Amino acid sequence: MTEQNQITLDEALKLVEFKYIEGAWQVKHVHDNVWGSVDGDVGGTVYGDVGGMVHGTIKRCKWEFVETPKERLERLIKEGADKAQLLEAFNQL
Question: Residue 43 and residue 28: Cα distance in Å, rounded?
């Protein structure tokens, strides 16, 4: 790894804050975007968007994608749905 690609400890500590709990170091806060996976639990709040999949639960509830009526109508228009499907989706708005 070249020196340009190596982050310094000071730069890393500006991005991530740590805490020591139960005999192990854990990430306390991430002060920037995460461009990859979080392989573990998030025990706090996510301020921003999740641009990928969520495998697991949110507040102990199973997560699933729910399409709003507006999103459904937009999708059907893009897919070239028939008039009956469009009318049904429009009426749900």
Answer: 9
